Structures are given as structure tokens and as C-alpha cells.
Amino acid sequence: MPNPDQFYITKDGYKDYLTVRVYKTQKAMYEASEKLGALYKNESNGDKDSTAWFITTPVNKCKFTNSEFTADMYGIILLNEEYLLYDLIAHECLHAALAHERLINRYMLDYYNEHGEEERLAWHMQYIFANILDALKEYGYKVRQTTKKDAKNAREAV
After folding, report:
1. H-run or E-run covering 97
2. What secondary structure does DSSP assign to 3-24, as a single string?
3. Segments of the chain scoring below 70 in pLDDT
4. C-alpha span between 95 and 78 (Å, rounded)
5. What is the dihedral of CA 146, 151, 152, 158, to 10 degrees?
6. Helix 117-138 / helix 86-104 crossing angle, nearest 10 deg
């Protein structure tokens, strides 16, 4: 199985980052998610019908640094060429933004928005989404709208 394309999303001046991987097929992505889920003790790494994933790599579960990742990485988004869809990418970006928010706020989420927390989360999600789309374009990938056929073939997470 060939290695996936991989790129990183981070803001200037920040140490933390998000890893994004694009696999050729949904099957290859699932196989990778099983390995990563075991590595990071993620008990919910999706199922074979899922078309994209976000895997959290919290520092408290990542007790080591290997050659691939560091403790500054707060998560991995797994995508595949068969389902490069705007709505799926946005969905995974929200998971990533929430993971980042948990990391910087030490797991004290509070979104009643008195101090702009909700807005900060929305801006970070927007930043991740825009940068993933830019990177995918730079790598030559075509992101598309979800069609009725996609919706029928892909199972929605509940």
C-alpha cells in the first residue's frame, strides 16, 4: 500500500499542529485508522463505512514521541480520494477545532460566548478548513460537492 500524502496545519507562532492524510481508497484509510486508533488508544476510530475521520492525539494518551508525531500534534484528519467532499472535510475540521480548543483550554469548554469562546472556536474551524482546501488544491486533489449517490453510498455518523 503506497504512503498517503500528508501535510500539516498550524498557525504562525503556535507549536501545536494538525496532521492531514489523504489515502487512495476508503479501505486504505480504514486500515490506517485501525493502526492509529490502537497507537493513540482511541476507542472510537470509526467503522468500515466511514468516509473520513478525525483521531485525537491528546498529550495525556501520547506518552511518547516517535519519528512520525510529537506531543504538539493535537489530531489527525484522515481523508480518501474516493470521498473528497466539502461537507465531510468541514465535519472533520469541526472535530479538529474542538480538540484544539480542549487542548488550549485544558479541557474546560464553555460556549455560552460571554468571552468570545464560541467565536474563537468558529474562527479556528474556518482556518483549518480553508488551509486544508488550499493544501488539497496544491497537491492536485479535486474536492467536490456531495451528490445523491455519495449520500446513498456513505453512511452518516449519528
Report:
1. helix 86-104
2. PPEEEEE--TT-S-EEEEEEES
3. 1-2, 37-48, 58-71, 106-116, 152-158
4. 12
5. 170
6. 130
pTM of the model: 0.79
Q: Which residue has the cell 469562546?
A: 117
Contact (Cβ atoms closer than 8 angstroms) between residue 1 and residue 28: yes
Matching residue, cell 488550549 = 104
Listed residue (43, 65, 58) closest to 100, CA to CA: 58
User: What amino acid occupies position 100?
Assistant: H
* C-alpha cell recorded at residue 96: 479538529
Cell of 59: 498529550
CA distances from 56 to 59, 88, 153 (A): 9, 17, 26
